[in-house]
Amino acid sequence: MHFDVVVVGGGAGGLELAAQLGRHLGKNLGGEKVLLIDRFPYHIWKPTLHEVAAGTLDAHQEGLSYTVLARRNHFSFSMGDMCALDSARKTLTLAAMKDGQGNEIVPQRTVSYKHLVLAMGSGSNSFGTPGIENAYLLENAVDAQHFHSDWLSAAVRASFSAERSLSVAIVGAGATGVELSAELLEAHAELLQSLGSNQRFRLDITLVEGGERILGGLPERISEQATVALRRKGVKVLLGTRVQELRKSELLTSAGEIRADMIVWAAGIKAADSNARLGLEVNRINQFVVDDHLRTSATDIYAMGDCAACPWEEGKLVPARAQAAHQQATYLSGVFSALLNEREASAPFVYKDFGSLVSLGDNKGVGNLMGGLAGKNFFVEGLVAKWMYMSLHLMHHRAILGVGKTGLLALARLLQQRVSGRMKLH
Ligand SMILES: Cc1cc2nc3c(=O)[nH]c(=O)nc-3n(C[C@H](O)[C@H](O)[C@H](O)COP(=O)(O)OP(=O)(O)OC[C@H]3O[C@@H](n4cnc5c(N)ncnc54)[C@H](O)[C@@H]3O)c2cc1C
């Protein structure tokens, strides 16, 4: 198999890039120029994983099949897990695919490329904490569905127990931890409406953060508002508390032991350890080191999104956010369109921070908008912030589905919720 552009990773950035390139380059060529590779058959926008975990978003409805997206956007799709790279020969290897019983379905394959883009995302960082296997992670749709299934079982168990309580500890108060806390509270409220009055149970959420404030990467005012909102909802927010060890249903921390029926690890970010074995320069969290044109240390190999360490201002790196992946997809689409038309693309990538929005459930959000109206910065909260937060998801869908289908999908989901309720109980 040979393609002009191969994109590995169909997430927030890689899928948008493949769709943009396919529409520009593949239309008259039946998708023969651009190949997208992902280890999963369907796409879920990662910033919605906390909703899938809580059950307020159904992964089966939300998931978009890559093969359908490929046909609509004129690129090719291959499911597979990239396991090796030969940058001298310009080939990569996809591991053999196996079924649930370990039988081989597809043997190991080699793909050759003219230009390669690595967009493989990142996961959380356990910082070597012993007992990490006792925690749930939220790194992909499978993790989120696994948590959801166990969370429903734990909820049913709690509703029949003598204590009538369920405790969840979330380690790491970045966007993932904060949004998951708020979403679980919302899901709990929905659950109580479905349960009989003799089955009601209490949900205790503890958010454990090693730093001195939550949402450490965002402006202080957002941290303060979010802390107040979470505490008002009954979340126990522990700041400056380092987790030393995880045990089954227990965290050993610098502030003592915390008992929890379920533990979620949502701290830090780290890219896959296997990145360091691909022969490209990586940093200490396995991100590919790129220059301001998103070029890695090997010729014709680019990296973008969470798996790339891209220089920004004041010696900082471009943050690992969906908006950065989106901007890099647009930038690389321009670069390849120029290169494949034998034009030189020389302008560097410049990240523009438009601010951040955090969902606090209950039709509430909080965030800041940078350089928006008349170049001023704004603080937003409440329903306006929540709507703007939801519009980011729609913008991602618009990039891969177009305006009409995004509208239809949003309407279909609204109607589905009217019929089946918001909470996925199975
Ligand atoms: C719960 C949660 C909430 C978030 N909220 C926000 C938010 O509000 N705003 C925001 O800006 N950001 C948010 N983020 C961060 C945001 O999701 C990421 O920054 C963004 O998804 C990064 O995009 P990406 O394309 O680099 O990687 P991803 O979206 O993670 O996609 C990576 C893709 O690569 C595939 N892949 C990985 N390895 C391989 C391999 N070896 N072979 C083949 N395929 C592979 C994966 O299956 C995946 O599809 C949130 C993240 C989480 C988990």
Automatic annotation (TrEMBL):
<keyword id="KW-0285">Flavoprotein</keyword>
<keyword id="KW-0274">FAD</keyword>
<feature type="domain" description="FAD/NAD(P)-binding">
    <location>
        <begin position="3"/>
        <end position="329"/>
    </location>
</feature>
<dbReference type="GO" id="GO:0003955">
    <property type="term" value="F:NAD(P)H dehydrogenase (quinone) activity"/>
</dbReference>
<dbReference type="InterPro" id="IPR023753">
    <property type="entry name" value="FAD/NAD-binding_dom"/>
</dbReference>
<dbReference type="GO" id="GO:0019646">
    <property type="term" value="P:aerobic electron transport chain"/>
</dbReference>
<dbReference type="Pfam" id="PF07992">
    <property type="entry name" value="Pyr_redox_2"/>
</dbReference>
<keyword id="KW-0560">Oxidoreductase</keyword>
<dbReference type="InterPro" id="IPR036188">
    <property type="entry name" value="FAD/NAD-bd_sf"/>
</dbReference>
<dbReference type="InterPro" id="IPR051169">
    <property type="entry name" value="NADH-Q_oxidoreductase"/>
</dbReference>
<protein>
    <submittedName>
        <fullName>FAD-dependent oxidoreductase</fullName>
    </submittedName>
</protein>
<comment type="similarity">
    <text>Belongs to the NADH dehydrogenase family.</text>
</comment>
